[in-house]
Amino acid sequence: MRFLVVGGGAREHAIAATLHRAEAEVYVVSRNANPGLDRIAKATSRVDPTDPARVAEFARAHRVEVAVIGPEAPLAAGVADALRAGSIPTVGPGQVGAQIESSKRFCRELLARHGVGGQPRYAIPTSVEEVDRAVAEFGAPFVVKPSGLTAGKGVWVQGADFNEPKDGAAYAKSILVQGGSVLLEEKLDGEEFSQMAFVTDSGVYPMPAVQDFKRALEGNRGGNTGGMGSYSQRDHLLPFLSPADRGRAIEVLERTVAALRSEGISYRGILYGGFMLTARGPLLLEFNARFGDPEGINALTLYEEGNFAELLHGVATGRVDPNLVRFRLRATVVKYLVPPGYGDRPQAGGVLELDPLGIEADGVHVLYGSVESVGPSAVKLSNSRGIALVGEASAIYEAGARVEAALKRVSGAYYVRHDIGTKEDLARRTEHMRAILSPGAKPSPIPLSVAAPAAAPSSAAPPEQLIG
Ligand code: AMP
Ligand code: GLY
């Protein structure tokens, strides 16, 4: 089968490599060079991946049979609609469905309209006065989120990105003044996890749960990034995540797909729920309309039993054979090698020397992100995440140790989070969750009735509606 992969990061390298193993022919549209994709692809185009007409034209010229869209920007731009209009079945929602990610306001309002629980308390102010009112009514730490796409970097959390409520309010107002839409949310305490699923007309097919490390620096300090690394556990749960809580998260995904469908919005692609596990159960932070980067790499590393080309063809055409949705029972750890200063002031241009064959021989996979090949074993870093190394083992810390061992085969100036997947970090997270869930723990704030702006439907349904 002939596949188009849109996007040029390590996530797309993982998608293309998994298709390649299933003997698919891969064609690629990406803005940047990617040595991994260049090696796999039959043909590569540098047309703008967010230009629907140009992408569809490239796909037609190469008689592509199925398209897979990696990043959010092409989805938000309507690339999937253009491909479908050209009779190319596509993994990825159209522009309307992609709003589940590209408009946090659309997402919260859809879920509220359909009583899908598992949402935090939020407000959608539409004037500077409403910002002040909402902040006063929250009366507790809060989070400011631009409604639109910000590559994971626009969210401000009180206590991490600002301290005084007035500074959060000023940020929210600045978004409104620039003509944007903004959400305020109660700040949740807990552990985050990503639950992705294949979604098509025949159902919702979950992948293993994954935990992403969003903050740039070790110890979860520094700014929010697209993700510095991630891990998944052998049983597809996480050290702090029970089968029941994962089931609740999957239920939020299923109810969201039903809500979209009942509004006449077809969704064939990947749905990714970013959740915070709290004392009130898993609460939804955001949806993404695509594989996580890096979380998709964890899931795809485990997808080896079955035919990935056939699975994606099924997603794109509306009917998935559940026997094809199988993931091996192994733990995985992904670590991104990024330019020094990434997350704040990345220094592009540094060269990394690496021994990919030696790394692969040690059982660690090398997935290339936005790097340029400058020699048989050398790559130049850009401003973005450079190389993802993926280890697998039966325990998370062993998979992490494999990646750490592989780092000995890489030289040059880069930053990597050594704390991802260590026994110490896993213990800290489990203890954090245990303290939150213990009966003596401080009760979580009772939801107040945050005045919803006139234009918006009433505030989020309490999580009990889903869970109870
Ligand atoms: P989002 O783009 O909504 O996933 O937000 C980016 C990051 O901000 C999340 O991964 C969390 O680390 C943090 N965040 C978002 N919403 C909240 C919230 N309501 N409470 C605490 N942290 C949050
Ligand atoms: N790793 C977070 C994301 O893909 O959005």
Average residue pLDDT: 92
Helix content: 25-40%
Secondary-structure-based class equals alpha+beta
Spatial strand arrangement across the major sheet = 3-2-1-4-5
Strand content: 15-25%
Radius of gyration: 21 Å
Report on the biggest sheet: 5 strands, parallel
Distance between the termini: 45 Å
Q: Overall 3D geometry?
A: globular
Secondary-structure topology with pairs:
Elements: E1 2-6, H1 10-21, E2 25-29, H2 35-40, E3 43-45, H3 52-61, E4 66-69, H4 72-77, H5 79-85, E5 90-91, H6 99-102, H7 104-113, E6 122-123, H8 128-138, E7 142-146, E8 156-157, H9 165-177, E9 182-186, E10 191-200, E11 203-206, E12 211-212, E13 215-217, E14 221-224, E15 229-232, H10 243-262, E16 269-278, E17 281-288, H11 295-302, H12 308-317, E18 331-337, E19 351-354, H13 356-361, E20 365-368, E21 371-375, E22 378-381, E23 387-393, H14 396-406, E24 410-411, H15 423-437, H16 464-467
Parallel strand pairs: 1-2, 1-4, 2-3, 4-5
Antiparallel strand pairs: 6-9, 7-8, 7-9, 10-11, 10-16, 12-15, 13-14, 15-18, 16-17, 18-23, 19-22, 19-24, 20-23, 21-22
Helix pairs in contact: 1-11, 3-5, 8-9
The structure holds adenosine monophosphate and glycine (GLY).
